[in-house]
Amino acid sequence: MWGYVQRAHKAFGRNLLLANTLSSGGLMAVGDFLEQKREGGQFNASRNVRMLTVGLLAGPPHHYFYTILDKFLPGRSGRTIMKKVLLDQIIAAPFFALLFIYGADLLEGRSLSHCWAEFKDKFPQIYLFDWIIWPPTQFINFRYVPEQYRVLYVNGITVIWDIFLSYIKHREVVIVKRTDSHGEEGEGGTEENASSSSASGDKDK
Length: 205
Fold this sequence. Notes:
Blueprint: H1 2-14, H2 16-39, H3 45-72, H4 78-107, H5 112-144, H6 150-169, E1 171-179, E2 185-196
Antiparallel strand pairs: 1-2
Helix pairs in contact: 2-3, 2-6, 3-4, 4-5, 5-6
């Protein structure tokens, strides 16, 4: 048994980018699956595949972001960890929220203007919850978790985070049309339906 664990440890270290990417996509799919079970109704496989794809897209940036952090901010002192946590919140959190909303919307066949409108509407909620869950999680990550397991550790916590993201993403959002002074229509803000929709944006159903 211990020999198997050692071989898995070595294999994980040799294929770190691949392992981090696959775990990012797989756990995003797990989070969406759990959220769909909570919502009830028929399982939406196409939605789950989209979430899997977005997770796979997020894996490499996550991998390289933590690699760069460790390169330029080595060590586990309290000062260093605080810098890493702040950089994670200021740089990584907005970037991955943008990647998530745009990636999921584009896979649904949405326009770029719709992506931006939905991002503006949902980012404040995503970012607020981000500050609640991730600073303590990342403190443990940077303080105690070995470098090669950091993305895997984050992805493990991310199952909870992904359930939240899936819930936020698949609430029904209505893009409000506005008419400017020249009589031209454009896309304005958003109005959220109070009910959740597990099939939001599904054009293949």
